[in-house]
Amino acid sequence: MAEPKAPQGDADLSDMLQELRVLQQGAQVLTAFLVILPFTEAFEQLGPVQHWVFLATFLSSLASLVFLSAPAANHRLQRPVTDKEGFKATATRTILIGVAFESLAWVLVADLVVSAVFDGPISLVAAGLTALLVLALWWLMPLLSRRARGQR
Q1: Quick check: 82 pLDDT over 90?
Q2: What's residue 58's pLDDT?
Q3: Out of 47, 67, 69, 137, which could bridge 98 as a Cys pair, Cβ 3.0 to 4.6 Å?
Q4: Is residue 29 a part of any domain in this protein?
Q5: Are 67 and 94 in contact (CB under 8 A)?
Q6: What's this model's pTM, rounded to 2 decimal places?
């Protein structure tokens, strides 16, 4: 016997919460790595610029976790959600802000890690390539696909 289909609003909400699980895992792993880093001997060998890059990376990663966790926390606190469209609109905004912070964190961590291994501008090249990949795959492709389908 087939399960009854959930209303479209419920299905969209469920999809959104599933997407958050994927995004949060990346941010959680990155943040866990960054939390440990200052307590290692290798951190002391980093230069002052790398310490600032670390701080920006850590704060970006933490901000992404806060924004990416907000929809799930709000969903739990508002339960039952009566204004599903309003909730989804707000959640979408917080998710996009979280993805922006996570994007920045991945670019910065590329610079941080490569600069710890190699001298010179190679870390900036790595950060630039990471930025291009994130921009293309996380931002441009979905927006261009959406535009091709005629959506705003």
Answers
A1: no
A2: 98
A3: 67
A4: yes
A5: yes
A6: 0.86
Q: Output DSSP code: residue 79.
A: -
In the structure encoding, which two tokens stand for residue 109, read together?
């961590």
In a domain, 7, yes or no: no
**Residue 69 identity (one-letter amino acid):** S
Residue 64 domain-assigned?
yes
pLDDT of 121 reads 94
Q: Is the dihedral of CA 57, 62, 63, 68 positive or negative?
A: positive
Q: Supply the range of the domain harboring residue 29.
A: 17-38+47-146
> pLDDT by residue (tens digit) across 28-66?
999 999 999 999 999 999 999 999 999 999 999 999 999
The candidate with the shortest Cα–Cα distance to 18, out of 63, 100, 75, 81, is 75
Gap between the terminal Cα atoms of the chain: 38
Specify whether the CB–CB gap between 87 and 81 falls below 8 A.
yes
128 within some domain? yes
The pair of three-digit structure tokens given for residue 85, joined into one six-digit string: 């469209």
What total of structural domains would you count in the chain? 1
Rounded to whole angstroms, the Cα distance separating 138 from 133 reads 8
pLDDT on residue 29? 95
